[in-house]
User: Fold this.
Amino acid sequence: SVKQHVVKKFLGLMSSQNVPVYLIDPLVLGLIDKDIEQIRSTSDGPSPECKYFCSPRDFTTFALLDKTWKHEVDLFRTAEKMGFQWLRILHKDPRLDGMDDLSGTEIPLHYIFKLASHAIHLVIFYERSGHYLWHGPLRLKQHMDRKFVPFQKLHFGRYPGAYEKSELLSVSIDDLKVQIPRNPSSFLEEIPHSRFLECRYREARAFFQLYPDDTSLDAVEFRRKAKSLLHLAAVTLNNLGVKFWLSSGTCLGWYRQCSIIPYSKDVDLGIFIRDYKADIIPAFQKAGLPLKHKFGKVEDSLELSFQGDGDIKLDIFFFYEEDDHIWNGGTQAKSGKKFKYLFPKFTLCWTEFVELKVHVPCETLQYVEANYGPEWRVPVKMWDWKSSPSNVQDNGVWPVEEWDEVIQIF
Amino acid sequence: MEEWKGSPAAKPHKKRSWYLAWKYKLMNQRALRKLCQTGAVLFLLVTVIVNIKLILDTRRAAYEEEEESTQEYDDEMLDVEVPKQPANTRKVLDVEVYSSRSKVYVAVDGTTVLEDDAREQGRGIHVIVLNQATGHVMAKRVFDTYSPHEDEAMVLFLNMVARGRILIFTIKDEGSFHLKDTAKNLLKSLGSQVAPFLSWRDMWTFVGKKGGEVYGEKHAKSPALSTWGDPVLLKTEVHLTSLEDAECHWPNTELNRRRKTFCSKVEGYGSVCSCKDPTPIEFNPEPLKNNKVFDVPVAVIAGNRPNYLYRMLRSLLSAQGVNPEMITVFIDGYYEEPMDVVELFGLAGIQHTPISIKNARVSQHYKASLTATFNLFPEAKFAVVLEEDLDISVDFFSFLSQSIYLLEEDESLYCISAWNDQGYEHTAEDPSLLYRVETMPGLGWVLRKNLYKEELEPKWPTPEKLWDWDMWMRMPEQRKGRECIIPDISRSYHFGIVGLNMNGYFHEAYFKKHKFNTVPNVQLKNVESLKKDAYEIEIHRLLGEAEVLDHSKNPCEDSFVPDTEGKVYVMFIRMEQEADFTTWTQLAKCLHIWDLDVRGNHKGLWRLFRKKNHFLVVGVPASPYSSKKPPSVTPIYMEPPAKEEGAVAVPAVPAAEQT
Assistant:
């Protein structure tokens, strides 16, 4: 078929130029994943039929890790000689975005190679701080040919994306030698949740113009400790497979100023109650973070607090999903009063924060506004979690007989 | 500005001479003496205020200029979007050149390409090179030929300009005092009739094609020693040639396409743009076996000294084991020419908009460059930091490849540096030898990522602190007692003389005679012994083996060290406590090594070579190695010279500055 022919030519081109591309096409990987055991065991030998590359599609998606490739002009000359038409999407380098006033050469994010009726979409992945791979959005510039390929149908590029680094596996399918992620199913699972948000560096700079950053030794020291606490928490939760996101003040710090708010005094994370695991408490204790208090219970208003190094607290709030909103609970220890903090529904996106790939609510503005009100841009040092949040509601009082369970202070 | 030396016959500021005259007149009248004094104080105050305002204005002007150049860059960027119209649709250029005491300018087709009317700046001969096909400015230089040796630089530059280019000359203030015959003859050979007779405070303009016709020349003689020639304005036409004629016909390869782009834009890089026999821009040095630094990013910190950058990158790309993919050049400012140089070599360049002034700006540029380096190479554990005014030794990467593991395994290390502050021609000998030192030399060094990320970056001095980054890094709060590894013979060579804190004298005295390794593939000796505890054992072994020198002799004299080779000698100097460097400084001074502050020490011990013998200096009693001193030996004490004498010898620059 045309498709198999084009893929073959493309792979020939890439191997002749030493460009180590690998297959990430969700549809083809999906087919491969079904037969993965068989494909792994029979590493060579021609397959009887064209099984994977022959279903009629407009394009096939490949990936390329930037650092494994030396940008060569020759590649495109050779491609043209072979009859390919190509398109390149350039963008400013997001790895320099957080830096004041740096401007580097634009970097390639996507290539499209077209031959006859089939196109190859080549997504360039970049390593970023926080041990992950990033690909950029696909945005056409004004002079570009909007009908070059059916852009709407491309699987990658609607949003930027973040992925785990994956090892590669060489396989032979449909008479073609091709590299694929070693574990196609986990890569496929990542795709729908891969959307990446860049920090709002420009707004953060504007914020610091208005409110100059605290660069005192105390602030430096707090940020260092908070960063290492966040790293420790991330490792611990990731090992357990528990999905979490930056919440409250930590989320506000990311969204407003791309850094830890030095007077915030703690690190706040959110976890959906459906992801709760009983192992969480022992895992943190093992990591050297003793439980400081536990409020509520799994069924209602659960909140954990761990003692980090030198006065910094790690607060974990558990979120409960309802039909039209999401909430987490609070408890006042001395009175047994309950509070409820309401949020509009949100999904999770990846971002990079203090050299860490972490989740934040994609709908961050709504999330932050729910919590801190429309004036969230103005720093407030006096914060009372019982009255200051704009989404707080009274939620009754814990029955006295439950206090021993729902108000535990260590 | 600091280097400005006024014309000897020039009167001081006008206001001041008026003030002096007034003062002398009044001096004779006793009754007015009091008034005179008050007046003098008042006037001094006014002068100070006026001067401060002047300085501020000049600064502001300098800033505005920068903003303008930023503007130009933006326009350039816009140009990229829209294909450029070939400029040679017009065949003739109108050129205007003006020369006078206080102002020069050059206009090409009504566009001012040079204008300099700043006070106390830009004295000498201004040279502009135009592309003969497009009329674009390819180079702009000023040679202060009132001062010595600048004419040699001009000759060098003019010789590098390709034949056929259009050269424009104009003098500001004075350009003849140190314009020697070689330079005059060269100007004559370019077609100037006046050049051989140029004299004191003459005004002069000249436009000609290199190796071709003369488009015009004007000259105004100075009538007397104390006055300048009248301003001259030359208006002439220059005929453009076709683009074909202006370009070389190199084979159409990727490398030559880069070369062509470069050579049609800038001038003054000599044979790289030679049509017949261009010098290579790709070097392909031998790869390094088992290269441990192949994946280590290299950050080159640059300003607007494109000729330096060119020289630096050539040596860097020629070093064995270099990996061009890992190199990023960080340019402090939106300067085009340094970027052109970076692109010529096919490297990655990043520009940094200036945010602060002078030293603080350098410091902020360093921070941005280091942060960006670790962002761009997030998996890197180290970064190599280089500056644009360094030559890199052929075995630079081999040296690092053999030693970098120390930085990983030994927590007591702060850096590995390619530079030995005390490694002069007469004091360094062994390319395979390494030291541990308590000072941080810089000038080509390796930074550990976690040191930067965990410690330095979060508290890096903010712009308003106006600190030198290297001084800051040397402070005990940062260094925390950690040491750097350095080679006996430096793997970098500091050639820059036109830096922020550099001047010719300073460079001559402290950098020119520095030893620089040129031997490839040097196998380093016993690298393991550089680790903290092993090094102590090594030092004790050395001291045990060392012969104690005759302490009754003068340590400054050559005869202090016997005429032997390959022996180890030790001397003991007085050092009352850890920070007492009185005798050391005097010794360093008479040995003609770095004496402006203390460098190269390890626990009160210095290691160098004299007459090809290893020469150890131990400070007694502060050094823990004092116990090695035989009881009969009295440590040598050398007295510092009287204050005033000392003040003459030290140039007016921050003592420790090396950037």
Remarks:
- Residues 240 and 286 of chain A are 13 Å apart (CA to CA).
- Residues 2-194 of chain A form a domain with the Beta Polymerase; domain 2 fold (CATH 3.30.460).
- Chain A has eleven helices and 21 strands.
- The radius of gyration of chain A is 25 Å.
